[in-house]
Amino acid sequence: MLKNLRETADWLKAKIPANTEIGVILGTGLGDLVKSIKVEKEIPYAEIPHFPVSTVQGHSGNLIVGQLGGKPILAMQGRFHFYEGYSMKEVTYPIRVMQLLGIRYLFVSNAAGGMNGSFEIGDIMLIDDHINLFPEHPLRGKNDEELGVRFPDMSEAYDRELRRRTTEIARRNNIKLQHGVYIGTQGPTFETPAEYNYFKIIGGDAVGMSTVPEVIVAHHGGLRTLAFSIITDLGVLGRIVEVTHEDVQKAAAEAQPKLAFLIEEVIKTL
Predict the structure, then answer these.
(1) Angle formed by the axes of helices 2-13 and 93-101, to 10°?
(2) Which of 27, 21, 36 is nearest to 260 (CA)?
(3) What DSSP string runs through 44-59?
(4) Residue 105: pLDDT band by 50, 70, 90 thresholds?
(5) Where are the domains of the chain?
(6) What is the tens place of the pLDDT at every residue in 143-190?
(7) Which of 173, 176, 208, 264 has CA 20 to 30 A from 166's CA?
(8) What's the CATH code, domain 2-268?
């Protein structure tokens, strides 16, 4: 895999500014955040050597080279999911490529179901921590010390200082910002009422089908990570209704401007 990673990184190096240190992953329904980016180049995943290709509606499948907050960035417009049939190594392959390209900061977004009784559809939740319930761990297998240590500490997977800055920016601009624990599951089914209740009991505030593998690998590789969930449906007992992927995309799209603003303002501080 390291050989493939180097080939992918070498292919991309000629196409991105050498001082690019910021990576962004735009999740379900959040692809339009690219409108906030001063786009210099769009590279379809299909053209990138060894790169997977997203198969999910709402995930465009382009690598965006551009600027946000006056800083050069590399943005994934669409991500890869374990439920699509990819291995964890494939799901997290782009993160490893970013690591080899010298990316130091990773901003991640997703759509999630909320179990916290104080949440409303359309809320933005800053992820403070996560619970990994995926059946496969992205670091399982032989460890390459060039990429990270065998047993990485996970006490601060989500960068404390970046979270502090985000909270302060939201406060100054009167943006409602929730905080909570994100639970990562395999999918692709949305949760049953009993599962929502279980996730709440074990300490979760929101649940989704992504982010956790990417954050684990980013942290393993030394990237400082900040992640957000847009609450697109509610898993609160008594408030659970039937949900579709289209509903999720619509709720995510409506919250995009506020999330785009937060991400851009944090990037300005780097």
Answers:
(1) 60
(2) 36
(3) EGGGSTT-----STT-
(4) very high
(5) 2-268
(6) 988 898 999 999 999 999 999 999 999 999 999 999 999 999 998 998
(7) 208
(8) 3.40.50.1580
